[in-house]
Design brief:
The structure is a single chain. By secondary structure, the chain is α+β, with helices and mostly antiparallel strands. It has three domains: 248 residues, Metal-dependent hydrolases (TIM Barrel, Alpha-Beta Barrel), CATH 3.20.20; 81 residues, Sandwich (Immunoglobulin-like); 145 residues. 16% of the residues lie in helices and 37% in strands. It has seven helices and 30 strands. Strands 1, 2, 3, 4, 5, 6, 10, 11, 13, 15, 16, 28, 29 and 30 form a 14-stranded mixed beta sheet that branches. It has a five-stranded antiparallel beta sheet with strand order 19-22-17-26-25. The longest helix has 32 residues. The chain is globular and about 65 Å long.
Length: 503
């Protein structure tokens, strides 16, 4: 009934403050997304006024707001021209900051959006209503009053979903991975999505990069999946309003949960037996799939280890490159070939420099000059070629590696060859089965590439069914909130919007 589309509704560039151009952002988005929004920083009605403490913050925000105002019509026009219905859609948006109410991004289903300020959130809701738009809260997990969400002011009709994952971290729950490490502070339970559901609100969840260097969908920094009938503004917007959305970190984890015939985002009457079906198809080795009821894990599912048919089997194989000195840019020219079988599909795992503040750096300045820092050039049944520019990981917790995930169908005796920057590396699939092999291009402390691991496709997938009965272990005893989350061993996650089961 619905197709899965991938997008990023929260990405910044120099159109307000940040790095890179709108044109670059749209080119990069089209590489690995179906839709996006280039968001301009626009307003902050309750910005701090103490210049002794916040002068730098005040000045660069006002400069960014002024830049956006001067270029707003241009931003609207570029995103309009960047849209190709059926292939790629760009939605207009702007960001409204608030200490008291939390930050919100304003969207509309049409190609046009007036740039309008509001003194507070009730007034912003009126502005949004004039365009039949929505206002989506983001980095909600910060403490209320410190730019986290204020659930006392939340309205489901204006905000059908909230952004729970980005470069800021994960705002899903107290025990969610990816702590919030920005100088804006730690995660606060009262501002999490679980706290909102516990209060009885019905909203979906999504991911978005909040990236400030013109790279929508930057891998690992946050994306959203949407289940829609087709890739049109109207259909994607209908899915937004229906809450058929979910959050992912980067890998295209196709995760689905059904309660009887209900999709995620639905509210259904289910007073007795509830039949659940979960399907998860990942891009790497799955760790676990969890079904939660009212915030508690009630069932865990795991992939089954298989012995692949040596004569021919389907696998996921990842090529990852980067490392080396973080001050030295490296240009990559690579080619992968397999001598038997075929490449079924390719998934790019490209990311931009992880910038969440408007200050410049030598890293972003180098990559700003390149429209497409990473590009998949050519794919045939037995080969693929790519080019890339990397700099070493910025810290030991801040990776800047790039990758391509391949699905291949081949015998274990097949040989894969990777030719990169004049070096040649060869392995049989059997050598790579569940084992990655690394190679340094120019010796110790230089750039490197990892080939593998090779994972049987079954170990990247879970299909399960489960039956539950109505429960009353929640303050809202007439409804149970079910949701699904999936984790891969490589640290990639997907978190689905809930299904509400009414008794």
């Amino acid at each position: 009934m619905y197709n899965l589309y991938w997008g990023d509704l929260h990405n910044h560039c120099s159109i307000s403050y940040g790095h890179g151009t709108v044109e670059q952002a749209l080119m990069r988005a089209r590489q690995q997304l179906d839709f996006c929004s280039i968001t301009g920083h626009a307003f902050w009605p309750d910005m701090p006024t103490d210049r002794d403490v916040y002068a730098e913050i005040i000045d660069y925000h006002h400069e960014g707001f002024d830049t956006l105002a001067r270029n707003w019509n241009r931003l609207i026009e570029l995103q309009r021209r960047g849209t190709d219905e059926g292939n790629f859609i760009a939605f207009p948006s702007y960001e409204w900051h608030s200490l008291k109410y939390g930050d919100h991004n304003v969207y509309t289903a049409t190609p046009d959006l007036p740039l309008q300020d509001a003194p507070d959130l009730p007034a912003l809701r009126k502005v949004v209503a004039e365009t039949n738009g929505i206002a989506i809260p983001h980095h909600i997990g910060y403490r209320a009053g410190y730019r986290g969400i204020n659930w006392d002011e939340y309205r489901e009709d204006v905000s059908p979903f909230v952004e729970i994952f980005s470069l800021h971290g994960c705002s899903l729950s107290e025990n969610a991975p990816y702590r919030m490490l920005h100088d804006m502070g730690p995660r606060d339970w009262n501002s999490t999505a679980e706290a909102g559901w516990e209060r009885g609100f019905r909203f979906g969840i999504a991911g978005g990069t909040d990236h400030h260097a013109a790279y929508p969908g930057s891998h690992g920094d946050g994306r959203m999946g949407v289940f829609a009938k087709e890739l049109t503004r109207e259909s994607i917007w209908e899915a937004f309003l229906a809450r058929r959305v979910f959050a992912a970190t980067g890998d295209r984890i196709d995760a689905r949960l059904f309660l009887n015939d209900a999709w995620i985002g639905d509210s259904v009457s289910a007073p007795s037996k509830r039949r659940f079906k979960a399907t998860v198809h990942g891009s790497n080795l799955l760790d676990k799939v969890e079904l939660l009821r009212n915030g508690e894990v009630v069932q865990r599912f795991f992939p089954e280890r298989v012995e692949p048919n040596p004569a021919g089997h389907r696998y996921r194989l990842r090529l990852t490159w980067g490392w080396g000195r973080n001050t030295i840019p490296v240009e990559w020219s690579g080619r992968f070939t397999i001598d038997q079988g075929m490449i079924v599909s390719t998934e790019t795992c490209f990311s931009g420099q992880a910038v969440v503040a408007p200050k410049g750096s030598s890293v972003t300045e180098v990559l700003d000059e390149v429209d497409l820092p990473h590009e998949l050039l050519n794919v045939t049944e037995r080969s693929c070629e790519w080019r890339s520019i990397t700099q070493g990981n910025r810290t030991m917790r801040h990776e800047t590696t790039q990758a391509i995930s391949l699905e291949v169908d081949a015998p274990l005796s097949a040989k894969v060859t990777v030719e990169v920057n004049g070096q040649r590396y060869e392995h049989s699939l059997e050598e790579l089965l569940r084992k990655g092999r690394s190679h340094f291009l120019r010796g110790w402390l230089t750039e490197a590439i990892c080939i593998g691991p090779l994972i049987p496709i079954e170990e990247c997938s879970v299909e399960a069914e489960w039956t539950d009965t109505a429960h009353s272990d929640t303050a809202h005893s007439n409804v149970d909130v079910y949701r699904l989350q999936a984790a891969q061993h490589n640290g990639q996650w997907a978190w689905l919007s809930p299904i509400w089961a009414e008794r």
